[in-house]
Amino acid sequence: MSVHSGQLQTLLPRESLLWVFAAQLVVLLPHFAHLPIWLVFAWCIAVYWRLEVFRGRREIPGRVVKLVAVSLAVAGLAMTYRRWFALEPMVALLAVSFTLKNIELLSRRDAMLSLMLAYFLAATLFVFDQTIPYALYGVFSLLVITAALVAQQGSGSARAGRALGLSAKLLAQAVPVMLVLFVVMPRLGPLWAVPQNTSAASTGISDSMSPGDFSRLSKSDKPALRISFDGPVPPPEQRYWRGLVYTHFDGRRWSEPGITGNRWAGRRSRVRGEGEQSLPAVGPRYRYQVIQEASHNPWLFAMATPHSGTRGVRTTDEDTLIYRNPVGSRLAYDVRSWPRDSIPAQSQLSAAELRRHLQLPDSGNPEARAWAVARRQEGMDAEAISQALLTMYNRSFTYTLQPPALGANTVDEFLFGTRQGFCEHFANSYVFTMRAAGVPARVVAGYQGGEWVEQQEYLLVRQYDAHAWAEIWLPERGWVRVDPTASVAPQRIRDGLQSAAAEEFMQDAFLPLHKIPFVTRLRLQWDMINYRWYRTVVSFDAERQEGLLRRLLGEISPLRVAIFLGTPMAIALVALLIWLKLSSRGPALAPADRVYLRFCKRMARAGLPRNPGEAPGDYARRVEREWPALGLMVLRITLAYEKAAFADDTGALKQLRRLVRVFWPLRLSARSGISTNSLPTSAR
Amino acid sequence: MLDKVSFEASASEPSGSLSAGALNRRWLRWLDRRLPAAPSVTLNHRKLFVLPTAAGMGFLLLILLLWLLGTNYENNLVLALVFLLVGLMVVLPVHTFANLSGLKLRLQDVDPAFAGDFGIAKIAVEKTGKRTHERVRLNWPPEEGGLVDVSGGEPVEVRLDLPLVRRGKVRAPRIRVESRFPLGLFKCWSWVDLDVEFLAYPQPKSSGPLPWGVSVGEGEQEKSFSAGGDDFAGLKNYQPGDSLRHVAWKQFAGGRDLYSKEYASGSDARLWLDWDLLAGREPEVRLSNLCAWVLEAERAQVAYGLRLPGLTVEPALGSAHRHKVLSALALFPVKGVVG
Known about the structure:
heterodimer, A: alpha+beta, C8orf32 fold, 6-stranded antiparallel beta sheet, 25 helices, 50% helix, B: alpha+beta, 3 domains, 4-stranded antiparallel beta sheet, 30% strand
């Protein structure tokens, strides 16, 4: 209990300052990783300076120093970031405004502003990452910022335990509102194009394939896709998750002319429109949802002839899916896939398509070309040549994660020299040879296989499941998948990389954790939790919202949503009202007082209220004077009240009750036969 | 004429559209009905108002911006954070309200003061329920007032000061009781009328030394009899406290009751602070001058009396006397007395 009289404390006390800095630190800490290092230093210096000012060792910087600081910060931002319309510069800008505000953090208002910025910065963290650890950290930073707000209220509130406790209490009470809003609030979708997180290097399948790329991927056990099926599940040998098609070969690298970096160049011409899709309405198909980890590339992964209803996902001419932006954070999309043989094949390749799929460099790999031409001259058709090639692989080739290095003629050296390779070597040599034989062919890159988690709840596809295979075009059947790796190492397709290359698998991993079954199980459990988190919370979109509401409400009509929203609100309101009623009642009134007050209320309604503080006796005399018709009755009530209240006379209380029960001023005065002039002056 | 026109204009004000003055009057009338003056007031939902502060409005803007961020990035965690902050905004007014509800204010004491100085009202603040009340500000805007935390059972005393401009009885305006606890995003307030009335003595203005032995209108004064001179005037019954030197021992020895000898002076030697001494000045100035004399006499520890038109206070000394004299000065009706 204390009285702080006198000056309104406009200058920030020490606790307030420290709390603001603590909140800033908590919010900035996870951003330090991608903020430029000078900004981190600048923040530290600003905090140090402000604390020195507090200790009285330094002055608040003057206008010149501030101007220099602002120009330096702007120059620093301009030097660090080339593109302004992106996520990182915006976060950096927020951090800079924090820093600059710190050196003139003087009043309560400044502190409030700084903490509002902190809330915003805490939210931007989620744009970078939405995993469980980040979500927990977000809750933590929210707790600290709110505690800092509490601490701004004064020294009593600034104690750490008190501030954090109050903050936790307030946030906990806000949670029910959050849950209801989260379920009910409509998701509008992007209102305008926003900058995406572009800084991170892309991971996974890249825009081109040269020898060695896939063996590099095979060393990573990071998750790439999580796929859950709705209905039938394709057998293992069908689980080819197509991502990209490479049609152009420059002698060493396979690539796709339409793609540069992580962008589609001629996106509009290459992406198939919605209307052209002629997929059968009935027939066998797989329905599944893919949750893709951030790859920072726009291509998505699905089985052949896919279609997706998810917003922003389009189907390309090569039967792959593509997203409108590089996938900067986890993305969920629903896919339906029609097996290729269930849809009528394209009868003819256009001349341009034919040229594209037969393209070969002018020179190089003469032996392979000669081999192909020889097969053609033997009169073999496309399927026979393909078969001959696959038989050759099967007989004398080895599947290995550590193939010997290849020189300039990669195909020749592999086919007729080393004969040891990984999937990319097989795909590369196969497509090259088929093209040399005049068969339209292309390399397909993606993932193959996957590992079941929790009794087939979902299929976990990791980076080491990355795979490259081939497709050839047959006149009657259209595009047909051919996986040359399958003819060398069929267990790779059936059981995955680990069984196909047990010795070499994850050989150079820092800790060979994959060899300890317990750890493997634990990691799968953790993946499971992540997956559930992602499915229920992060990817809760308009469609899922509709589904959930339908489950909860039966059908979605404005009325039902209103009831759903209104019921908890009504309950809360009623509880609040009851609480108000209970808390404002004060000490209970004596029965006599209560009855007398009822009498006073009736008198007031009739137009002659008792003045505040007027004694009952005085009041009765006044009534007698101003409204004679009631005089006798009022006098009797007053007498009974005084007896009941001050002499504790139970008989008088009974009498008082009886009198007041029949006391209706207007009716009484009407009955006494005297008209309007019997009313008090004020009621006339 | 001009005066009259302007008077009419101001009189027609309430019937016209809602001018600021009319609104203000209406607001005060409404407050008077809802929160009648009483020396003890317990705050409850009838008496309290809750609204977001400027910071609260800023917070709403922040929520809007974050919602745009979350919607544009289709980021559910950002949206969840937005909804949590909305939840906070839903919960906060209840807390802010609860921090003031049940608070009891009681007027304890009002100290009189000189005009131009601050009148101090002592107000006891206590809780009626179990709930504690933190960071409650009481003030007469635009005065700073005091901040108070009520956590224990005993009442906390707050001293509020109000600048007193004119002498006389000063009815204090309503006290603003406000709290922004716990986050400063909402304010809950009330305008409480504790029926505070200050007595403002005139502002002391010195007008030279004390008027020793000066009196006005000798002829009349001479007849008026007052005690304490040199000439023997007669006997009166002894009363405890009369000087023993003045006891009529001769008569006492002669078997009669105890008498005191009374002396009278031709010119009254006692100190009279007289309104008429200051003729020719403004009435308010006269009162201020009298006030200054009172203070000087008190300082010099000399008994003094006061003569105002229609009021005479016999000479005496001490704080009760001082208060009596100063009150007379404070409440002296200037109207009707001509210069």
